[in-house]
Structure formats: structure tokens, C-alpha cells
Amino acid sequence: MTxxxxxxxxxxxxxxxxxxxxxxxxxxxxxxxxxxxxxxxxYMAFMSHYGAGAIDDSFSILVPNTxxxxxxxxxxxxxxxxxxxxDEGSAPLLAWGxxxxxxxxxxxxxxxxxDRWPVVVWRRQKSSPxxxxxxxxxxxxxxxxxxxxxxxxxxxxxxxxxNSTPRFVSVGQEQRLLDEGLNPWTGEPDPYVNLxxxx
Length: 199
What we know:
By secondary structure, the chain is α+β, with helices and mostly antiparallel strands. It contains six helices and seven strands, in the order αααββαββββαβα. It has one domain (6-179): SMI1/KNR4-like, CATH 3.40.1580. The protein has helices at 6-15, 28-35, 41-49, 74-85, 138-146, 171-179; strands spanning 53-55, 59-61, 93-99, 104-108, 119-122, 131-134, 168-170. α1 (6-15) packs across α5 (138-146). The chain is globular and about 50 Å long.
């Protein structure tokens, strides 16, 4: 695999604006210590431009949390889920994404240089092969998904396949918009904002 290129991140920023992103403020040194490894450059850049959140409410970029077993969700929880699905011995995986179709998007972490980790996807709705490997980093994978630069859609859900105008909303911005009574994905007033099912 070729190393991550800053060109991929520049392409991603050009096609998917970060106006509803926010710097995640990640302590990368602490995470490196907790996981025993570094992280890809484009993922670190993604967290400073966009943060954790979702693309078109269909693909979640996971919050980078520590591998503590008590932690549910985020990178730690989905890495454990992916490891349980890996069928080739020990699982050299680190999860970074999750789709609405329950696909888990990971890096295969066998190389010592995180910028050389390929993306692997566990595709819940596809029977053969369940695991597919892509010789790209995170930003290259997302750009390829948006531009249909694969032989077939790498995910079970095709919402982002060929989507030339993907929209990212960070977790914090999504909550802010909801608090303002707006649907984060349409920007329109949310008719259900004050609806309570506990009455």
C-alpha cells in the first residue's frame, strides 16, 4: 500500500465541507499510549477538521476512545465487535466507521506505519466476501466512495455511493441543531422537537 497522501484529505475537504464539523480536541499521545500504536495522519486531520459525527445520517465516524472494556460504542466498542467477526486468527483491526446497515469499517493494522494501513470493511448484507480490503487510507476510501471509484459499492448501504455532495455533521453540531428545533440533516424545523412519548 502506498502511504497516505495529504491530497486525499484535501480532496475530502473540497467535496465534503467541514462547516458543521468541530475539532474533537483529541489527546493523541494518551490514545497512542492506551492503544499501543499511533493513528493514521488523515484520521487525525479528520478529527481536527470534522470531529466524530455522521455523513448524511448514514455513515458514522467513530469517536476515538480508549480500549477500556467498560466503554460502550465508539472506536473501542466497534473494534471489539469487528474482532469477534474476524475469521483469520488474531484480529489486527481498529474500527473507525459504522454504517446504518451495520457494516463496520476498520483499518488492518499489521504495518508499523499507520499511514500504510488499508481499510477493511465487514459488510453485513453481503455474503461473499464478508470482509473486503481496500488499498487506501480513510480519506482515500471516503473519496472513492463518493466518486464511485471502486468496482462496486464497498458498503451494504448505497446512500453515499456516488454522492457528489456529502454532508457531515459532528456529534456536537447535531445536538446544537436539535436543541434549536432543527433537523440536522435538512436544516428545516423539526416537527417532532417537542413531542414526548412519556405522556
